[in-house]
Each structure stands twice: as C-alpha cells, then as structure tokens.
C-alpha cells in the first residue's frame, strides 16, 4: 500500500484554494503566509490532512492549474521560505500536506513546451502530443473542457497540439519515458521536503488510447460520438482510464509512492466503480482513493453538460452514493465530498440557503461524514458559505464560466438570462469567493481589494461568529470529526441504504460487529413522518449526534423536522 501510516482512514481532509483563503499583504490575493496565519482554524476543527490547490509558478490562465515551473512558488503566493514555514506549521499541528499534482498537462509557458513547439526535431517535442492537420483542419472533433477545439495549431511546426483544457494547458505525452521520469523527479522533490502526499489532477486522463499503436504518430484518431449540434463533441470519455493508465500508475507507485509514507487521491472524471476499484485496490492498485464524479451529475440532464440544469431528485443522489459505498467496501477506499473549487456551494446546491441554511448545512455534513471514506471539507463549507448570484458576466473571473457564456450567448444565441441561471447554479466562482473570516470589511480576507468579490452575507456568515457560537455549523463539523476518532464503525462499518425510493428521506445504517448506527436525514423543507415499519427499531437507541437538540428527539420519535438529521446507536 502506498500509505503505510496507521490511521489516516480516520482522518478528515480540508481543501484550501489559496487564492481565496487569506491575504496577508493587502494585494487582494490569498497567499501562503495567509494560510500559515490561519492554521489554528484547521486545528480547532480537527483537520489532519490538507489538500492545497496549486501554489506553483503559473501564468494563471486557470488559477494555477497551468504550471510553468513545478519547483517554484507562484510569486503572488510568496516564497519557498514561506512555503517551508507553512509546512512546518502544519506538521507541528499533526496536519499532513497533500500537494496538487497537475501532470496531465503543463502551462504553454513551461520551458518544456517552449522548446517543444519550436521545431519537430527539438528534444522536447515528444513531451507533448502532436498531430498533422487532417484535410486542413483539426485532427478530431474533440471539444476542450473550456470550450473550443481540444487542438490548437502551432505555426512553427505546422502541427496541432492536444489540450483537453484551455489552449494554455497542453497535454503531456506520458508514452514518453522521459516525461514520466520528470514527473517522478518532481514528486521526489516535494516528498523529500516533507509533504504528506498528492491530490492528482485529472490523473485518469494521462493515457491517450490511440497512442498504444506501434506507429502512434501515423495512426488516425477516433472522433468522439456526436451528442450535440455542430462539429465539436465532448471528448473526456475518449481519454479517461486509457489502456496504459494503470501501468503508468503502478510504475509511479514503484518509482515514488512506495518509498514514502504518503496519502494519495486521484481526481478521476468519468470513473466507474470498477475502475475506482482497480485504482485503489490495496494490493494491485496505486492510489489510496479517487474523486469520482457520479453524484455531481445528478442535477444536470443526462448526457448533456453540467450547465443543462435539472432539479435534484433525491433518490438519484442516494442511489449513486450508495452504489459507491457498497462497491468499494472492502475493495478500495472512497473519498467523500459535496463540493470543491470546481463545484457550487454545497448548501446552495443540496440544502437550503434560505431559512434552513444552518440546519441543512449540518444535515449535509452529518449525511456525508457518517458514510465510509475520507471526507473532504472545502474551505467555507464549515461555515455554510453560499453561492453568489451576480447578475453580470463581467463580475466572474473563471475561464470555464466566461468561455461558456461567450459560446452560449454569442455563438449559440441562447438567452443571456438563462445562461446566467446556469452560472448561478453551477459556476466555479461560487466556491472561489474569498473565505469569510470575520465581519470586518472584506470579511477579514484582505485589507485591500479582493481579486474576486466577497459574498455580501459575510457579516452574518463568518468564521469568528462560527467559532464563538456553540451551535454553529463549524462546531457541528468539529463534533463529527471527533466522533470519527471514537467510533470505528464510522470508519469501517458496512453501509446499507434504507428507503431507497423515498423522495425526501436519506436513511442508512453502518454496521461493524455488534455496533450499528442508524442515520436519518430529511432533505426537505417539510417535516416528514418516518415509515417505522421499514426502519430498524430505534425506540431504545442512544442518540449520537443530530442538528436539533438531542433532548427534544423523544418528543417526536416518529417524525423529522425540516432538514433534521439524527444519528442513533442501535441497542
Ligand atoms: C481539475 C481541476 C480544475 C482544473 C482542471 C484542469 O479538474 O480541479 O480546477 O481546471 O483540472 O487542470
Ligand atoms: Ca496576498
């Protein structure tokens, strides 16, 4: 197993998006000293793992997910000395730092790409993926994640290069052993510094299918199936979990991961349960866990993009999450998440951001943390931060959002107001507004002008308030994290979904030996009667945690109030 450390399975992780976490010098951009200054917040919560989104040198076409130099720190974020101080501060507090490893692609400003694009016989040319034009145009119909073709023409060589994301993020050619060696070297560099592992960006996209053929450069490439109007078609499924993916990952494990005590999570778009099992199998796999996306798709129209909204139908969410619970039980390991820097705010999406904001945020926390796997809390989730609904596209910074708006409104002639509705529901900037530390100006995030506006609810929703209020969302998370340490059933128990078809109740049990937890969550604004005959008898059960006062539970033994969550220990 890559991670040998005893009990990381009972740890909870916290994701920091550095640009939006805390600004120490008033330039409006979150930075590393800002993180160091707030480590007590994480410690108070009980966090033992931090996933830090990229802090490497980058031209910031995609906020650091386009790396120019893997061994230096982005100037806006600080220096390597600042980094070392932050790492030391984390280690002192028993927190492991998971770096973001973005190696499916680099920035087009990386020295390798600068060399590679200069001529066909440059030694770095084969670090990237090139194709001649086909009939004078792009070699395939693949659409990049941030709109437009996944191929961009390079004048100097007369070829197209592949980029599954923006044209400033060319995909690396993992078939080239030198590329793999470069990646392993940079991993050693960070691990030797004392980082505790990696979150691996879109890692299941590194093996491109056609390249396994002997004369790869000649082979013609498959087009993606047509699912939308026009030439370009979504192409992620063409490149995920490719034929050499597992062998690359096992090589990485042998060359790097096995030599350190580290924790790994691979971001794996389109991953199936079978693929996740293969990746996380303790004997033959390579990583500890993956971020899968299935439950992030329940509120969009099947087969369409994330922007094609569909109201959430709770049974879909339950079916998906429980399939992953049972599918990986005893096989691999789940990560658990409601949100991250690419997703809208959890309470706005799955809970109620209005009158039941606090209660529904606690319900979401309870529902997720009682499942098997490692929970990842995204900064501000522990405060119940909500989506923004800015009316104008110019108020948004995210490349994905801005490009989508452009294509939808200008090319596809969609109504701007409808497009803004999608952005309000799904745009990534919802998660990227500055962390709300206090009711001071700019939420205490900066003394200057923040790079992205602060949500205007910060006087009410902020960390200072939350830490002082025993009944806050923050303290509920803290309790859940502490319970995980005391109750092995939360870590290892098996999972059984109850009432699978119920439209408002999410109910399940976790069982380990004689201990059984019953989790009951009401995902609705109305109270719900409990169908007692279809639930285990909990009349004698002990209350473990809930989001309404435990003393009041016996007053309503067979109903749950709006957005109420309860966990019982069955006798
Ligand atoms: C991942 C990151 C996302 C980024 C993309 C390209 O999905 O989480 O933020 O835009 O990869 O690196
Ligand atoms: Ca700063």
Written account of the structure:
The protein is α/β, with parallel strands linked by helices and 571 residues long. It has helices spanning 32-37, 39-45, 80-92, 111-116, 177-193, 236-239, 245-255, 273-280, 314-328, 346-350, 357-369, 399-411, 416-426, 429-432, 463-468, 473-486, 488-492, and strands spanning 13-16, 49-52, 56-57, 69-73, 96-101, 130-131, 142-143, 151-154, 159-162, 197-200, 233-234, 263-267, 289-291, 335-336, 374-378, 494-498, 505-512, 515-522, 528-529, 542-546, 559-560, 565-570. The strands form six sheets. The chain has an eight-stranded parallel sheet with strand order 13-12-10-5-2-1-15-14, covered by helices on one side. A five-stranded antiparallel sheet has the order 16-17-18-22-20. Strands 6-9-8 form a three-stranded antiparallel sheet, with no helix packed on it. Strand 12 (263-267), helix 8 and strand 13 form a beta-alpha-beta unit. Helix 11 (357-369) packs parallel to helix 16 (473-486) and helix 12 packs antiparallel against helix 13. The model has no long low-confidence stretch (mean pLDDT 96). Calcium ion (CA) is lined by residues 23-25, 27, 29, 31.
